[in-house]
Amino acid sequence: MIYIGCHLSVTDGYEAMGKTMTVFGGNTFAWFTRNPRGGKSKPIIKEDVEALLEYVSSKGFGPLVAHGSYTMNLCSSNGETRKNGCEMLKKDLEIMEMVPGNLYNFHPGSHTGQGTETGIGEIADALNSAMNKDMSTTVLLETMAGKGSEVGGTFEELKEILDRLEYKDKAGVCLDTCHIWDAGYDIVDDLDGVLQRFDKVIGLSKLKAVHFNDSKNERGSHKDRHEKLGKGFIGMKAMKRIVMHPALQNLPFILETPNEDEGYIEEIKTVNKWFKNKSRL
Ligand code: FE
Ligand code: FE
Ligand code: ZN
After folding, report:
1. Which residues have beta carbons under 5 A from ligand 2 (an ion)?
2. Please, what is the angle between helix 261-280 and helix 14-24, to 10°?
């Protein structure tokens, strides 16, 4: 089995997200620690978060996957942008300790002309100054499509960042299916080969979450445009093979497909049906 869910809005609070996900038929979810385009994080009400924690444990939810802001760039050539990013990261990790033991996923960054090596160094430095030995959160670097000057478009780049971290046991990877497809990894015709590659370069034990998206573009396009399950170039057959793959079991799968609520409910139903039919065999 896997845990399945989608992104939810934190507008109505934390406990509400858990309850909404049950209505959606899922058992994990993602949310933005702050406005995805930047801005302040909403003040957190302790009782609300505690109610969520109690709720998700009573319902057997999998790990929850918070998402850092898109504007957070830990390796921008603009010093101000980078400094803001580092502050956001620190604050976000503090917030995450109110929801202890979960996952915090973010886009490693775009080097904006400094070069990949400099970018990797700055991302690792930022993480090393924001992480600490007592934190209960696992920080996840997201696999990227390699759009523009994005760092993290190859498994090797992510591995290089992970290798430079002081608290290695508190870091891992979130695999975005649309992104790795757009980056050039052939998860349609060679899923086993791609996962073996991941295992060889990073280690499958470091894989802690999956962003489960189809892609609007061809493999290697470096575009990063998500599509609904089965409606894109990855296609339903390959999406099913991914979610059922033995190496990916027990992970939280987060839908980031372009859907309204109804669409997410349908996609969650589809995935749950695949597992139900499997257990009947
Ligand atoms: Fe993302
Ligand atoms: Fe993603
Ligand atoms: Zn994306």
Report:
1. 176, 211, 256
2. 60
